[in-house]
Structure formats: structure tokens, C-alpha cells
Write a structure and sequence with these properties.
The chain is an alpha+beta fold and about 70 residues long. The protein has a 3-stranded mixed sheet with strand order 1-2-3. Strand 1, helix 2 and strand 2 form a beta-alpha-beta unit.
Length: about 70
Amino acid sequence: NRTAYETTYIKDLMTDPPAILNIDDSMLQVMKKFDDDDAWYLPVTDNGIFAGFVSKSAVFSHYRLALKQEKVGG
């Protein structure tokens, strides 16, 4: 509805994330936040400054790759 473009603001559509990750969080902390909040995407901060988003699926993919490499190399 184009008539709502002038009266709708992004602040009215936003919701707070269920959790915020810190760039220095451990994998245990990250997975706990994803699981506790049943989230698939979470924002990441670096010293309180927004650094980006990370997805649960990306975290799992990298973790599986690391396990596979450890198994092959170890």
C-alpha cells in the first residue's frame, strides 16, 4: 500500500533481537544463545559496536568442517 509509505517508519517495524553475540563469545556461549532463544540469526557486536549478523546454519557448517578437518588431520 503506497499510501502508507509516508506514514510508516522502520522503527515501527523493528523488534529487538532475542540475544546479542559478542565477537569474542565462545562456541559454547554462541550455541547456548541460539538454542535458548530458538533463533536462526543473531547480531554480533565488537566492543558494543554492531559488526554483523551470523546464522545458526553458518555456525554449524563451520563447526562440522572444523571437526572433519580435525578428524582427517588428527
